[in-house]
Design goal:
alpha/beta, Rossmann fold, 6 helices, 9 strands, 24% strand
Length: 271
């Protein structure tokens, strides 16, 4: 794996020259619009990068975007990878390791998720302050490379508290409804049953989704500070549960995206 990371990193550096990103961004389902705010200097298709996994979802573009955003040099993943696409955890988190090798000092993550907390509503934002990982494997299983991080990384603060505080202040200043809560990561791709939603709430979840935890584990393994935010695109309340389609989820994400983009942009300016 280490050789693959080094080979992929070397190829990307050969294409972007002396550009060294400070901030890495992973854009979730329906949340690629932040790219419009970036002064793009270079774009690379995942398919053209040696060793880079390719997003299989039609609503994930599959590009690495390099450019300037809020006065910082950024690299944005327009299209993330999921376990349910058939990738293993090492493949899903491979881009995070490559972004770290390219020079990023902070990782920002977004996702679309379902609300579990009955005081939340679809269309709201939730800053992730902790997570419960129920995915079936862990990206750190297998050989540990000391060059990447320790065998047993600490996870007492997987999401940096100072970044959470700054983002909440930004949301308050702009009158954006933004909660903080616990994200539960499941494998997907099906949405949850009524009983599963109830269980996830009982164990402490405020929102549920199919991503994020693997990338955050690897970022912590490599010593990268992380900030993550969810757009709550549907409601998993057992008492009032209704069928929901992907089209509805994408539409809610589209409507909420400007608020998320504003928070991320202003947070990046403060890094």
């Amino acid at each position: 794996m280490l050789e693959n990371i080094q080979r992929t990193t070397a190829y990307i550096k050969s294409r972007i020259g002396d550009f060294e990103p400070e901030v890495g961004i992973i854009l979730g389902t329906g949340l690629g619009g932040l790219v419009r705010e970036i002064e793009v200097e270079k774009q690379l298709l995942y398919a053209n990068i040696p060793g880079f996994p390719i997003s299989t979802l039609e609503f994930h573009s599959g590009k690495l975007i390099f450019g300037q955003l809020a006065g910082k040099r950024v690299v944005a993943m327009q299209g993330r990878l999921h376990y349910y696409e058939g990738y293993d955890m090492q493949q899903i988190t491979f881009p995070v390791r490559v972004m770290k090798m390219l020079g990023i000092q902070t990782l920002l993550v977004s996702n679309a998720s379902g609300a579990l907390n009955p005081s939340f509503q679809k269309g709201d934002l939730m800053i992730i302050e902790d997570h419960i990982n129920l995915q079936p494997s862990n990206p750190l299983v297998g050989t540990n490379y000391d060059e990447l991080g320790p065998r047993f990384p600490d996870m007492s603060e997987p999401y940096r508290l100072n970044l959470i505080s700054k983002a909440l202040d930004i949301a308050s200043e702009h009158n954006i409804t933004c909660h903080k809560g616990v994200y539960v990561a499941v494998s997907g791709p099906n949405l949850e049953t009524r009983a599963e939603y109830k269980y996830l709430r009982i164990i402490g979840g405020d929102a549920v989704g199919m991503s994020t935890a693997p990338e955050v584990i690897v970022a912590n393994h490599m010593g990268l500070p992380v900030f993550a935010i969810s757009v709550l695109t549907d409601e998993g309340f057992p008492e009032t549960l209704k069928p929901v389609s992907v089209e509805e989820i994408l539409e809610v994400a589209r409507q909420a995206e400007p608020n998320m983009t504003l928070i991320l942009k202003e947070l990046i300016a403060q890094l």
